[in-house]
Amino acid sequence: MKIKTGDLARLVEGHLEGNPDIWITHPSKIEEGEPGSISFLANPKYEHHLYETKASAVLVDKHFQPKSLVNAALIRVDNVYLTIGKLMQEFNQTTNGNPGIHPSALIDESAQLGPGVSIGPQTIISSDCIIGQGSCLYGQIFIDREVVIGKNCTLYPGVKIYKGCRIGDDCIVHSNAVIGSDGFGFSPDGSGQYQKIPQLGFVEIGDRVEIGANTTIDRGSLGATRIGHGCKLDNLIQIAHNVQIGDNTVIAAQTGIAGSTKIGSNCQIGGQVGIAGHLTIADGSRIQAQSGIASSLTAPDGKWYGSPAIEYLAYLRSYAEFKSLPDLARRLKAIEDHFKASK
Amino acid sequence: MKIKTGDLARLVEGHLEGNPDIWITHPSKIEEGEPGSISFLANPKYEHHLYETKASAVLVDKHFQPKSLVNAALIRVDNVYLTIGKLMQEFNQTTNGNPGIHPSALIDESAQLGPGVSIGPQTIISSDCIIGQGSCLYGQIFIDREVVIGKNCTLYPGVKIYKGCRIGDDCIVHSNAVIGSDGFGFSPDGSGQYQKIPQLGFVEIGDRVEIGANTTIDRGSLGATRIGHGCKLDNLIQIAHNVQIGDNTVIAAQTGIAGSTKIGSNCQIGGQVGIAGHLTIADGSRIQAQSGIASSLTAPDGKWYGSPAIEYLAYLRSYAEFKSLPDLARRLKAIEDHFKASK
Amino acid sequence: MKIKTGDLARLVEGHLEGNPDIWITHPSKIEEGEPGSISFLANPKYEHHLYETKASAVLVDKHFQPKSLVNAALIRVDNVYLTIGKLMQEFNQTTNGNPGIHPSALIDESAQLGPGVSIGPQTIISSDCIIGQGSCLYGQIFIDREVVIGKNCTLYPGVKIYKGCRIGDDCIVHSNAVIGSDGFGFSPDGSGQYQKIPQLGFVEIGDRVEIGANTTIDRGSLGATRIGHGCKLDNLIQIAHNVQIGDNTVIAAQTGIAGSTKIGSNCQIGGQVGIAGHLTIADGSRIQAQSGIASSLTAPDGKWYGSPAIEYLAYLRSYAEFKSLPDLARRLKAIEDHFKASK
Questions:
Q1: What is the ipTM of this complex?
Q2: For the whole model, what pTM was predicted?
Q3: Do C27 and B331 touch (CB under 8 A)?
Q4: How far is B78 from chain A (nearest CA, A)?
Q5: How crowded is residue C280: how many other Cβ atoms within 10 Å of its Cβ?
Q6: What DSSP element (H or E) covers A302?
Q7: Is A318 on the interface with B (CB under 8 A)?
Q8: Average pLDDT score over chain B
């Protein structure tokens, strides 16, 4: 988006104080503002930056009274935070995407592409795939056979989706994420070797899901690995075969969930968490970063920490004592010595 | 594979009860069965699903006696589990692969391809590579110079193999795995900066090895990083330079092994384990998920847990006390107070 | 590099004892030496390998006196270690790279390529990119719009760089690393769902930085995620949005740093470390592998361990007591019993 200050003020239904003819091309932090950028002042703590910023325009509250000279044009709005959100989406939408089908894309003739679909250079769409209306696939993506992708999805370069996986509407998948790789299933054959258990299932991802860069989601061995609507998965996460995740659960980077575990809805799972296989995690569970979950969490809305994890505050209390264990051991020894001496 | 129930019964040497002319196209879980799918009942616990399944056919034990009406065709076999395994491989084999050499693949004229090799679209095979008979490389793979890949391997889209690495027969490498990247070798130059130590070795992978999606295996700085025959590596694993892993060792997702460590044969290493560099891990070691190994494990077949890891049961015992540390500290204080009072 | 023993001796300013006409094509470990390779003997502990090595030539100290018959040609030098380093760089330089622009690369006409730039097959350079002199991009790389890459960089196959990111001079980025993916920013909307906060910033990487395979570095939500000069990042690392890392900090594999945290210069961060968001980590901090940093580290040059981390030696002391916690609990119980009995 490239827009003049006057038009931008109208776009956000704000009131402009300053030159309406400055071109704005991108947003900036107020302390890093540059000519051509629009910044914002929402938290009064940062007001001093306003008097020094090089941003061409700054969004402020409609009642804001500057205490000193401001070089930037001011755009007064009802709610600075809401306006920023709206504005960021405007900037984002207009800079995204690869319009149309690139001639170097390889699209099987049996694939069905909805209206307005964009396919980037060197992206491969295999047979019997369906790509929903308005979805944008960047370059160098591999979509294997019989994959279904919903409407208005964005897939970034290097995403690989194995055969038969299904992705809902309004999803975002970041670069080099892998969806549908084989689950880690092997059976010992008695001689010390392992035989592969064929992985014949698929992955099913709901609507409004975001999948981070280099995250891996294995296909079910039979049936689905399922990610519910509205889930948000950060980078470098591992989701094993036949895991089920409820709606609106968010998972931070580098967490791993082992096979067949069922995670509830509206959970918040920190980074580098490990969850063992075949467990059930209740709705609303909050798991602190680096925790290890070794047994099912049955009470909803619990908060957990440690490896293996216990109740969050209990862990903090135990860990506080852990730090003074040498002192505790010394004191115990002193009492023992006293006993021996007094015998 | 698309096969009629009658033919399928003959294929698995079973006895059919029901319509021999229903087309079967895929396997399913019994509780998720759909028309056209074949399911199985092995564990009596799930027998109730049999009377409600929509699967067109179900594998059961030859002596099984249904207690109620079954809509699905039954195929009676000697050993349900063995038959499933066989059947899954049938379904798997016939849906895999990219037959032939795709015209968009870039194959150096000095590369040697065995008979029956498949190379997918946009895959790059550099000079002096050798690809063994029957191996199937999906699209968007990069094979750098002088790489040797054995017979009957499957490499999924996006795999990258650096110069001079060698992979055995019957291996599977999942999407976006990286084999042969530079080891993390730097020497401080005294001024606070680091100089790169050139990484001139390679990776050597045995036969029947499976490498998970987005796993990384660094080349040796000199000589090989070696993965033994029959090893199974899950997703997002890090294997550093000059690591040696014995035969038939299995490693779960997100584990990292630091440089020059030697892992024995037939080890079982859980997820998110970290193993420090220059250690030796004895054959048959079993390391619990999230453990940290800071020194060599010399006794074979040990079981380990914790960070730094100690013997498995010892860790559980210590951790049980850790959970009641606040109580323990309070009790110690009570005794101290009693002493002071009694003085 | 392919060079005769005589020329190689001259190249390293050494003195040759043996045949000057043997072709040397690669370095090797002395115990794994093959005809055509050059090895070295620096540590006297390994002298016995010299008498059995199949390497064609071996670098030794100028004063070295063999105790037995040596088949390899000897090249005597002043400092074996320094000479190896030099030699390895020679071998490395001459085997690297994809000279020129491959015809299958897709380079936007608005992109500016410096002299001597190499672009591998199927690499995509989008509009308004700048690639500095002498940089080598392997195949299957995706460079989105307005990306700036400095001089003499090497990017390996499968690297994906999002819009507007900037990379300094002399950087190395390994396969399937992702630079500039969206930060993990969502705001709850009150109904249990999350709204995406647009991620409009970029990534800025200094000079002489190395980024490992499958590592992910998210763009700032506004402004930059910054990696300082001389930093070395191993494989599978996660750097979240708006993280700032000072110069010459090294980070081992699978570590994750959450949003907006500022890491100082010359830090050493072990593998699988987790650092929470919005923290400040002092210059020279050394963080043990698998540690979790939950609050800012303000004292420079500290050493830390544990989750949450405490001072390194304090952790080891506490952990030593943790291991004998069952004994400690038993002893406390004995004293309590004694008290009760004596009442």
A1: 0.85
A2: 0.86
A3: no
A4: 19
A5: 13
A6: none
A7: yes
A8: 93
